Amino acid sequence: MKICKNNNESIRKALLLIFHSSLSLSILYIFLMVLEALLPLALLYAIKYLVDVVTQLLRQPEAFADGTLYRCVALFCGLLLLNRVGSIFQSVVSELLGKKTVDHIQDKIQRQSARLDLAYYDSASYHDMFYLVRQESGTRPLQLLRLFAQMVSQGLTLLGILLMFGTFSLPMLLVLLLAGLPSFFARTRRAGLFYRWRKEKVVEHREANYLSRLLTDRTFAKEIRMYGLAEYLQRKITCIRERLYRQRRKLLQRTALWSLLAVLVEVLAFALMVVLLFRQAIAGALTIGGFVMYFQAFRRGSSSMQTVVASVSDFHENLLFLNNLFAFLQLEPAICSPKSPVPFPERIQKGIRFENVSFTYPNTDKKVLDRVNLEFLPHRVNRLGGANGSGKTTMVKLLCRLYECDEGAIYIDDTDIRCFDLTDLRAHIAVLFQDFVGYAFTAEENVLLSQSSREEEAWRQALRSSGADEVIAALPHAEQSLLGTLFEGGSELSMGQWQRVALARVLYRKAPVLLLDEPVAWMDAVGKAHFQEALSALGGETLLILVDHDAEWEKGKQLG
Q1: How far is residue 381 from each of residues 105, 398, 458, measured CA to CA in Å?
Q2: 421 near 337, Cβ under 8 Å?
Q3: How far apart are CA 203 and CA 44, in angstroms?
């Protein structure tokens, strides 16, 4: 009962995904599905009347003059034309609705991924879940839509045929019903086996995907070639693929035997149905047209039965995979805004204080920070030094509430940062991370990012202080130049140049708190000297925390 309830809930969620993507297309699609389901039944009756009319005309040629044959042919051709035109329209609507559904689901995945805490990225089980979601989300919704259409249209057709046989012959009805049961059990069993296998082997699939990325992504291209890793990595991928192939082959061999037994039952049912129809015709209970109609109805009903069985089985399989999507969309971030947030101070007066802060990354045992107490004052350069792994970058993440402290608290002007609205807090903190991002946008977009308008004075000052003005001036189209070589016409930058642009992005925000994590790590001597000159001005305007392990800068705050 619980499984059935879960399946019904999954079906409801799956259909809502489709309807929410486009209600108008969904309604039109349902109308075309019903039309497609009813037309085959009308065609069966049209064939019966056409055959009966032809049989009567062969016996009484003088009846040809009344035009009955022409009307039957016109009716049959009209229904056939309507069926074909409906199929064309349904195909167009199906493709449009499918694209809308995929885009809608991708949007939900992207929004959900962006709202979750960084702690999720530290969990292997999260990566397993996200791998399944990412791999299946591009194809499963389209398959679900197609299978739903098949189930509805073929199910309605089958229902009409069952009613037709039910009012004519109960034995024939039972034969038609029993013919589809073995196939239903075989397909359902196969779907369950393959779903469990895919879920059990997600780590191996993800490992093969990672190794493939190492071989194909530009990020790793230099080391792959210099260390001659291509053949080594290819052997690892081949080993995983061969192992997965052997396991899949065993599953296919098992399920093929079940399918073979189902086919034998279907063939026996067909033979039995032909015998029953012949007996009815010999007894005079069927005209020639009736025989043709019921014979075609059985073939159509058998085909519809197989389609419904296959659709139900595949729909169930798709639901199993979509349950991964539903589980992903139900994840909730642990770091949230309070119900009644405190406004962020217009001007920081006392500074930032770390009080007995301890932190351990998820799924690890080692404390990165252990009861740390530090204070950073406004309107000056606060230098934070320490050895690699001492927790400098971790403190930056905690201050931005990308992670939450295990113990202790962080205060801005004596207010716990957990009391601020999360978006408001981050809007007042500008950060240059160690692993800054170079976006494949124009130079202007790289600095402005989500900000729609450009303030010229702030723009010039940010470029001048970061040294990015020289970088952008040397580009072929200045600030409108596309950066990176990912897209046609882009200009590649050195890491030092990318860092200057990233620094300009941070400075342009004019945030009251400025966090710079090793801001000159990639810059040359000229760039470092230029930045040193700009430091005093930056520190006078904001609360600046400068993180670096350079010995020259370790005269400030120390960790480790």
Answers
A1: 46, 20, 20
A2: yes
A3: 52
φ/ψ of 383, rounded to 5, equals -95, 130
Longest Cα–Cα distance of the chain, Å, equals: 115
Q: DSSP code of 554?
A: T
Amino acid at 178: L
Question: Nearest to residue 335, comparing CAs of 122, 113, 126, 118?
Answer: 118
Residue 461 near residue 507, CB atoms below 8 Å: yes
Determine the Cα–Cα distance for residues 329 and 113; give it in Å rounded to an integer.
Answer: 9
For the beta carbon of residue 198, count every other beta carbon within 10 angstroms. 19
State residue 63's pLDDT score. 55
Question: Phi and psi (nearest 5°) for 390?
Answer: -80, -10
Mean pLDDT estimate for the chain: 81
Residue whose C-alpha is closest to residue 15's, from 326, 327, 329: 326
Distances (CA, A) of 143 to 18, 36, 146, 157, 402: 12, 18, 5, 21, 37
Whether the pLDDT of residue 200 is over 80: the answer is yes
**What are the pLDDT digits (tens) for 337-383?**
999 999 999 888 899 999 999 999 988 888 999 999 999 998 888 98
337-364 burial, b at 16+ Cβ within 10 Å, e below that, comes to eeeeeeebeeebeebbbbbebebbbeee
Distance of CA 313 to the CA centre of its chain: 23
Per-residue pLDDT of 205-244, as tens digits, reads: 888 888 888 888 877 887 787 778 888 889 998 999 899 8
The tokens for 16 are 């809502």
Tracing tokens 């009966």 back to the chain, one arrives at 52
What CA–CA distance (Å, rounded) separates 337 from 425? 10
Stretch (H or E) spanning 409: strand 407-412
At 514, give phi and psi (nearest 5°): -125, 120
- Whether residue 6 is predicted with pLDDT greater than 70 in this model: the reply is no
Q: Which tokens go with 494?
A: 């050195």
Q: pLDDT-derived band of residue 58, with 50, 70 and 90 as boundaries?
A: low
Q: Are 383 and 543 in contact (CB under 8 A)?
A: no
Calculate the CA 257 to chain-centre distance.
35
Query: What is the C-alpha to C-alpha distance for residues 280 and 291, in angstroms, rounded to an integer?
Result: 9
| SS3 category, 435 | coil
Question: 């399918």: which residue's tokens?
Answer: 259
Give the per-residue pLDDT at 17.
Answer: 82
Cα 350 from chain centroid (whole Å) = 45
pLDDT at 337: 92
Report the pLDDT value the prediction gives residue 559, as an integer from 0 to 100: 52
d(CA 459, CA 32): 56
Of the candidates 384, 401, 513, 402, the residue with the CA atom closest to the CA atom of residue 410: 401
Report the percentage of the chain scoring pLDDT > 90. 20
Mean pLDDT of 166-191: 74
The structure tokens listed for 458 are: 């702030």
